[in-house]
Amino acid sequence: MENQREIFEKPIELSFPLPLAPETEVRVHLTIRAKYILLHLTTTSIGDTSVLPPLGSFVYALPDRINTTQTISTPLCQNEYSIDLTTRLAKIFARKLQKPVYVGNSISFASAGMGGTSEEEIEGLKMIVGTVMKEIDSHESSA
What we know:
Elements: H1 2-8, E1 12-18, E2 21-32, E3 37-45, E4 57-63, E5 71-77, H2 83-97, E6 101-106, H3 118-142
Parallel strand pairs: 3-6
Antiparallel strand pairs: 1-2, 2-3, 4-5, 4-6
Helix pairs in contact: 2-3
Protein name: BgTH12-02817
InterPro entries: PAC4
GO biological process, one term: proteasome assembly
């Protein structure tokens, strides 16, 4: 019966502004299952929902059962502009959660204050990981 409840549980949808670009929102679509996590990320300009983001990258990552500090990942769909961040996010979540993770990502830092520098990307990555982990922790503690 527990699996039946899990099948019908709705995904969690979140949005929050990028740390160094408050006019750009990160949109999160998070599905939490007992055996895996499915996470989709994209960015939109606040107030402008008419522009559809391009298809990004999709990566599968799972923890290494022998060495828990390592992860294994494989890209399922690649976009040269988003594959590095997508792989990094998938590996971080697989290592932290110790379960397989699917991450789809079409985030763009181009509209950030300095045009998408590595500092802006790192700040965005930290905020995404912190926000998603907080949501997963609260979901697991209430289950």
